[in-house]
Amino acid sequence: MKIIILGAGQVGTTLAESLVSEDNDITLVDNENDRLELLQDKHDLRVVKGAASSPQVLRESGAPDADLLVAVTSSDETNMVACQVAYTLFNIPTKIARIRSADYLREKDKLFQPDVVPIDHIISPEKLVTDEITRLIDYPGALQVAHFADGRISIVVVKAYYGGPLVGYALSALKEHMPHIDCRVVSILRQDKVIRPQGSTIVEAGDEVTFICATIHIKAVMSELQRLEKPYKRLMIIGGGNIGMGVAKRLEEQCTVKLIERNPERATALAERLGKTLVFCGDASDQSLLFEEHIENIDVFLSLTSDDEANIMSALLAKRLGAKKAMVLIQRMAYINLIQGGTIDIAVSPQQATISALLGHIRKGDVANVVTLRHGIAEALEIIVHGDENTSNVIGRRIADLKLPVGAIIGAVLRGEEVIIAKKNLLINEKDHVIVYVSDKKHIAEIEKLFQPSAFFV
Fold first, then answer.
1. CATH of the domain at 442
2. Residues 69-115 pLDDT 10s
3. CA gap 353, 17 in Å, rounded
4. 299 shares a domain with 271
5. What confidence tens digit (pLDDT) does each residue in 300-351 have?
6. pLDDT over 50 (residue 458)
7. Residue 209 in contact with residue 157, Cβ under 8 Å?
8. 315: domain range?
């Protein structure tokens, strides 16, 4: 597939690195020459220096025969104009744009139409991150929660602790403990080593366990791996940007929310827009302010400013002063593995959320949803099966007979309205929504090929 990526920032770079290894023809466009040279030295891709929305630059980038344009520059307006130019001059079939501004998103149904601003898919990092944080608040103790099949099936990452009934026992004991609930453990991370789970695998305290189950059973399965935490009721949010405001608005009906914003004008505007959230103008590093607002009673401290270092430091301070959990927004991928799981409980990455959403539109075949797991190393795909027994490599075949690559596991299937946790004798049917967990993204191309019917995609 010929793909043009506009913008070599964190998202554009990570996306290019992810796709270039999958036998795609990638061209990356940016104004920063040093950044482009560095990427060209590291990866097998083309780079073009210039303005992303320039017709001449797009022409040089191969727009006349490109299959896909992904506009992820830091400017919404540049992304929109680039998609307009790509449609009008070059008729690029699929155009994806990152749009951040809430003003544009509010009018998206009228604006983003073929005869107005021709964008096929909109990616909004702020909404994606707000959704992710809300899911983590809904499932106390989870490190990551991803929904598939219209929310019916979920993949959850959770740390095993002493006190969980399954800790110290083999995975096969899960069925004895929960005879009426189906669940499948698809990965265990132990001391930075991935263990392929088997029935005889003993769950140890400290293991990072990834499991798949019907969404309604998430808390029941989590209770096997750790003592279930009480619902989070008292939240403190640092930063009143789009994400901070979005999280407060989403959660203020079910939780007591306090929000600290440094800018006085922004704090005033937030106080007017947020009906039940208590808004303070102040600095999150001010210990006296945190003490006055009873930081020791806060269930989750969410540091959601655009400054990674400030988020990390304020979260460390809040934990030292008694906050029970700390969740931080991290832009730089290099920081995430350094901090998560120590004093800071959860790091949320806008880049990773955006990449997941983009991959859902880029993967070959009928892929309804993609989620990157373990900070980009693993991936889960929801694939809709098409074809028949003659044209498909999977329809009418048992899961045990499928030639899945190493580290790939079919975790669950949605068949009509029924959630089926996959067993080796399960036959795959047409129109099944199959959830595949892939422990190493380098095998994605094999999965795509396996599920593509011969007469469906050329």
1. 3.30.70.1450
2. 999 999 999 999 999 999 999 999 999 999 988 889 888 889 888 88
3. 16
4. yes
5. 999 999 999 999 999 999 999 999 999 999 988 778 877 766 788 999 988 8
6. no
7. yes
8. 234-348
Instruction: With a cut of 60, say whether residue 213 has pLDDT above it.
Output: yes
Q: Which residue has the higher pLDDT, 162 or 192?
A: 162
Question: Does residue 7 sit in the same domain as residue 118?
Answer: yes
Question: Do 172 and 207 share a domain, yes or no?
Answer: yes
The number of distinct structural domains making up the chain is 4
SS3 category, 326: strand
The CA-CA-CA angle for residues 257, 263, 269, to 5°, reads 60
* 118 and 24 housed in the same domain: yes
Q: Can you tell me the distance from the alpha carbon of 456 to that of 366, in angstroms, rounded to the nearest whole number?
A: 10
SS3 288: helix
- Specify the DSSP class assigned to residue 139: S
Bridge partners (DSSP) of residue 413 are 420, 434
Per residue in 256-272, pLDDT (tens digit) is 999 999 999 999 999 99
The answer to whether 311 and 330 are in contact (CB under 8 A) is yes
Q: In this structure, is residue 458 part of a structural domain? A: no
Domain boundary among 96, 123, 150: 123
**Number of neighbouring beta carbons within 10 Å of residue 180:** 7
Name the domain boundary from 313, 348, 383.
348
CB atoms within 10 A of CB 131: 16
Same structural domain, 13 and 114: yes
